[in-house]
Amino acid sequence: MVSVLIGDEKIELTEKEIQARSKVCLPLDGLTEEQAHERIKELGDLVGIFKVNDLFTSMGPRAVEMIQKHGAKCFLDLKFHDIPNTVKNYAFHATNLGVYMFNVHASGGLDMMRAAVEGVESAVEEAEKYGIELPRPRIYGVTVLTSLDLARFLHNNVPIFKAGIKCVPTNEVLSQFTLGWERINFEDYYGIEKLMSQKKTTNPTEEEELKIKEWELVLSNDHMNNLINKQVLHLAELTHKSGLDGIVCSAGELDYVKPYLPDNFSYVTPGIKAPITGKVGKDQLRVFTPSEAIRRGSDILVIGRAITGYNTPEERRRAAYQVLQDIASVL
Description:
It is a single chain. This protein is α/β, with parallel strands linked by helices. It has 2 domains: about 1-145 and about 245-330, TIM Barrel, CATH 3.20.20; about 165-220, no CATH class. About 45% of the residues lie in helices and about 15% in strands. The chain has 15 helices and 10 strands. Strands 3-4-5-6-7-8-9-10 form an 8-stranded parallel beta barrel, surrounded by 5 helices. α5 runs parallel beside α6. The longest helix is centred in the middle third of the chain and has 20 residues, at about 110-130.
């Protein structure tokens, strides 16, 4: 049995809670080397994988070594996105670091992702020449960032949508408006989906009501239906064709995407909120609880401020244990 200490209470983890631990990936974002070291010691018995991005910028390979010395797995979250040969070199060196997994931006395309696979295989083959068995890291393609809602996603791709859609249809309610794509200021609609979801429980102002109706016009175009889902599926299919192990996406896309991909394809999900308090990073927009994400088919959950957003080590450990309990409830 595995025992953990939560406050003054000694708790024996169940088999399902131990299994849940292997699915939890904790970011070491925004920390100094000393703080990251303390965070790993603090939560290592409740977290199976630690993720590094900006810490790698400050520490380099020592960030990976620090995690490995504590017996934990490392997710190198550098989201490689460059010409194929450069990404091949990144993948080669990431493999030599012995990381458990790393990611690339799927939007870099088929050739780029295949180059990442080639970089991994080159490192493994070269190590074999010296009698070294180098583990093959898992590679994931990042699809649509969980910090993007539909308005932000459309804003990023205006020329593509302008080419395909001449204008947004009007209706009697807003017959005085002509919302052609050339005139839409998408930034005005950042966060509009949250406002629309709160409409039933709060009374929007006249200005907010008008903005909601305008956005409903955008959504009334058939092309908008499941647009982010469609993009995630497209990138997931490219990722699978490239030979990668899986994708990074919101749990919200999994019901749409999974039926089109093989059973052994894997899903890493950020945008996870605390199961009890709902705490989550403010820049995360498509969010779910750990159990919701696992139920939908996520394999690894990247959980940051739902755990690290508390002030004391005891609070953070309790939050991490609640995450394990929540995941275990659906395993």
